[in-house]
Write a structure and sequence with these properties.
- By secondary structure, the chain is mainly alpha-helical.
- It contains ten helices and six strands.
- A hairpin with a 2-residue loop joins strand 2 and strand 3.
- The longest helix is centred in the last third of the chain and has 29 residues.
- The N terminus is likely disordered.
Length: 221
């Protein structure tokens, strides 16, 4: 058996030297990252430390974020926020959304989407809203549409923190509208019709929002 192969079956594991080589860093750098708590603790077998693919993915994320200009302190704060984030199973609850498509992202892909705006504070706010959850080394956004719109707004110069604050207010109104239409439909139709009539409720909201925006724009002209 090779010296750097794990002495057990199952997920691949690496000794310190092999992990550093695969990540393209020195053993000294690897130990420095571990001391800075940028990496989760390895599995120990006596005096031997065993790392797995999650550690390798984290090291590659660190390298990508460093290339994008993030500092080690900033990366450590982001890692802590991710480690304390909600699990994707908690985020999705009893099942995946019926009309929204969840999106899986690496941390560096998320950072690329919101250039310079992925801070620990914004990450925590997005997780608190239920937009983001974690699944191992990946981040899961609950809705591709919300992800695309929020990144588009940031590209237009609106700070992500303000986009998230607006999202929280929209959530309050959306919950109220959902309660209104649920009550209305159940007053006149059986519960099994809720899903079938859902598109009608959405169309009303979209049309009213469009008309409201027209009124605001006309006032400004």
């Amino acid at each position: 058996m090779a010296e750097d192969a794990a002495p057990q079956e199952g997920p691949r594991e690496y000794r310190t030297e092999e992990l550093a080589r695969l990540a393209g860093i020195t053993v000294r750098t690897l130990r420095f990252y571990r001391e800075r708590k940028l990496l989760p603790p390895p599995r120990r077998e006596g005096r031997i430390a065993w790392y797995d693919d999650h550690h390798l993915a984290r090291l590659r994320t660190i390298a990508a974020l460093l290339e994008r200009g993030h500092t080690l302190n900033g990366i450590a704060e982001l890692a802590e926020a991710l480690d304390q984030g909600r699990d994707v199973a908690d985020l999705l609850g009893v099942g995946t959304p019926t009309e929204e498509e969840p999106v899986r992202l690496t941390p560096e892909a998320l950072a690329a989407r919101f250039e310079g705006e992925v801070t620990p504070e914004n990450l925590a706010a997005a997780m608190e809203l239920g937009y983001l959850g974690t699944d191992g080394d990946q981040i899961v956004h609950i809705s591709r549409r919300l992800l695309d719109v929020s990144s588009a707004l940031v590209r237009e110069g609106i700070p992500l923190a303000e986009v998230l604050t607006a999202g929280a207010r929209v959530r309050e109104h959306a919950d109220a509208l959902a309660d209104l239409f649920t009550t209305l439909i159940l007053r006149h139709a059986p519960e099994e019709d809720l899903r079938r009539l859902r598109p009608l409720a959405r169309s009303v909201v979209e049309a009213e929002l469009s008309l409201a925006l027209d009124r605001r724009l006309n006032k400004r002209d």
